[in-house]
Amino acid sequence: MNNFKWWQKTAVYQIYPKSFLDTTGSGTGDLNGITQKLDYLKNLGIGAIWLTPIYPSPQVDNGYDISDYTSIDPRYGTMKDFEKLISEADKRNIKIVMDLVYNHTSNQHKWFIESKSSKNNPKSDWYIWRDGDPKKPPTNWRSIFGGSAWTWCDERQQYYLHTFAVEQPDLNWENPEVRQALYDAANFWLEKGVGGFRIDAITYIKKPKKFIDGEPDNKDGSISVHTMTANTSGILDFLHEFKRKVFDNHDIFTVGEANGVSADELKNWVGDKGVFDMLFEFSHLVLPFTNGEIWCYPREWKLTELKKALSDSQNATKNNGWCPIFFENHDQPRCINHFMPKNSDPIKTAKALATILLTLRGTPFIYQGQELGFTNTAWDSIEKYNDISSHGQYQIALNEGFSPEQAMKFVHFFSRDNARTPMQWNEKINAGFTSGTSWLPIHDDYEKCNAEIETDDENSVLNYYIKLNDFRKNSETLLSGYYEEIFKDDENIFAFKRSSEKSKIYVLVNFTLNEVKFQADFLKNANLIFGNYQENEKGILRPLEAVIFEEAVK
User: Fold this and answer.
1) CA distance 371 to 464
2) Integer Cα distance of 99 and 393 in angstroms
3) Strand 253-257 to strand 278-280: parallel, antiparallel, or no bridges (unpaired)?
4) Integer CA distances (angstroms), 527 to 84, 105, 334, 472, 518, in order
5) Cβ distance 10 to 45 under 8 Å?
6) Which are the catalytic amino acids?
7) Do 468 and 530 form a contact (C-beta atoms < 8 A)?
8) How many Å separate Cα 150 from the centre of its chain?
9) What distance in Å separates the CA atoms of residue 393 and residue 224, rounded to the nearest whole number?
10) Contact 15, 50 (CB under 8 A)
11) Which end of the chain is more exposed for a tag (fewer CB within 10 A), N or C?
12) What is the SS3 assignment for 184?
């Protein structure tokens, strides 16, 4: 334990600033709202806060379309507000982690405005441009948000590539001037005292040498740009340079978002020879998708598939590397709805998933509201959704022949707005989030699911998180112990053992709405220390029951 770095011992809390706390009445959360709630986060046991982008942005993709990498968007406050947040967080031993969005900029960024102005300006090749017929894009690639990944630019009489929205042109990482400008921006924030970086959509920065059509994966003749560009050979060369010029020689942590990186590839990304300290890989989150993450074609997945995804990551990093453990973020539906059966009790479910989150080997990432047991929302009209991806996926479903009612069901389940509804602080108007008109509707369960009520309820989801997180931080077995899956082929129970020289800890979670029996001889000398029911009979798990047993090593 003594050899562990600070970010391995603590939990990280992800904040979506727009939805956390508004102190001005604008309807949008701000930096001072985060500063105001630092004691709440300290009590939760948080050692680092990851902020989704707070840079100037037209907000086409809620801040992931950045127009200036080294300033603060006025809607969130000022640079002085940010510096105060850093200072106040530091007093509580909490580090602030910034989100770097380096695959693309906003089309309002001064770099792109210059680049599109002509083919012979100094930044002409800072983005990815291709010749072509104005009526026929260079390839049949479909952007992540739907529609062609290519957009025609009249000024240059060329197409530019955008992996995401039309307003998010991809940067040309082959240009060393581009890379250096990005490194300089990251170093700017390190000088401000940030404690690390989460790097967005990093697997897309390297493009293939030749841009060719791919085999269509849906009826419109297009193929996901992800399939054609993610993790292109040579990407790690860029990232090792990034590490040398920014990350090295700083007491920070870095975590990359790397959709498409498999467990057996983790050794190249994290660990002694890797480029990041941790990597968000999504094998456990994309189980419903086999078709380019198109929402209207989800598949039924089995518990053994989820267990394998989590266990593969644990095993791939057991001797070299470290995992970020997460079930939610700003791009995912709420985990209660995502992983558990329909009509599951939300409190038992939230505690069950917290049990896994806080006992696997790695750094737990808690997304705002997850610690309160937030669930998905379900608004009746696509117009009520702010998320650009939801609108794109809704249109894809209609184009594929689904009815508007069917398309809305896919949006209800998968929309990124499920995770973006404002934080619920109390049972007052607007859940205490704002005195104005909230930028996104408050979830309608705020009167019974909020921080104030749960703080006072000994048996709440919030207090379960606090107690279990505190136990984790002081347990050598949970921090550094080995991981071993139990009941590997069981489709009802996820069970594993963590073991060290001091103890063995057994974690068992029932993922069904039925009572499940199991062979419990291995628990004969172990004592129940946590659970989402008041007591437990060894060998039986009630619906959604989660238990943690510990056995001292003699």
Assistant:
1) 9
2) 25
3) parallel
4) 45, 53, 32, 16, 17
5) yes
6) 200, 257
7) yes
8) 26
9) 13
10) yes
11) C
12) helix
Q: No. of H helices and E strands in the chain?
A: 16, 20
Helices within 207-271 (DSSP H only):
225-229, 235-242
Write down the residue that tokens 């562990």 correspond to. 4
Residues 6+ apart with CB under 8 A from 243: 254, 275, 276
Task: Give the span between the Cα atoms of 200 and 329, in whole angstroms.
Answer: 12
Q: Taking a C-beta distance cutoff of 8 angstroms, is the pair 390, 357 a contact? A: no
Residue type, 261: V
Q: Which of 227, 228, 238 is nearest to 269 (CA)?
A: 238
**Cβ–Cβ < 8 Å for 246, 187:** yes
Judge contact between 21 and 33, C-beta under 8 A.
Answer: yes
- Distance of alpha carbon 5 from alpha carbon 322, whole angstroms: 11
pLDDT of residue 259: 85
Cα gap 375→472, rounded to integer Å: 25
Contact 517, 531 (CB under 8 A): no
Alpha-carbon distances of 453 from 24, 367, 428, rounded to whole Å: 24, 19, 11
Reduced to 3 states, what is the DSSP secondary structure of residue 39? helix
**CB count, 10 Å around CB of 248?**
8
Instruction: Quote the CA–CA distance of 342 and 314 in Å, as a whole number.
Output: 28
- Quote the DSSP letter at residue 523: G
**Residues in CB range of 358: below 8 A, 6 or more apart:** 11, 325, 364, 465, 468, 469, 471, 472, 478
CB of 89 closer than 8 Å to CB of 81: no
In degrees to the nearest 10, what's the CA dihedral of 485, 487, 489, 492? -110
331: tokens are 């791009």
Phi, psi for 389 (deg, rounded to 5): -65, -40
Contact 497, 540 (CB under 8 A): no
Tokens describing residue 355: 């049990």
Q: Which residue in the block uniquely carries the two structure tokens 């706390």?
A: 21
CB 496 within 8 A of CB 517: no
At residue 325, the pLDDT reads 98
Task: Go through the chain and tell me how many residues it has.
Answer: 554
- pTM for the whole thing? 0.96
Q: What is the mean pLDDT of the chain?
A: 96
Q: What is the pLDDT of residues 189-203, one digit of tens each?
A: 999 999 999 999 999
By CB atoms closer than 10 A (0-12, 13-18, 19+), residue 82 is buried
Q: Which amino acid is at 503?
A: S
Q: Are 206 and 173 in contact (CB under 8 A)?
A: yes
The pLDDT score that the predictor gives to residue 412 is 98
d(CA 350, CA 356): 10
pLDDT in tens, 281-329: 999 999 999 766 789 999 999 999 999 999 999 999 999 999 999 999 9
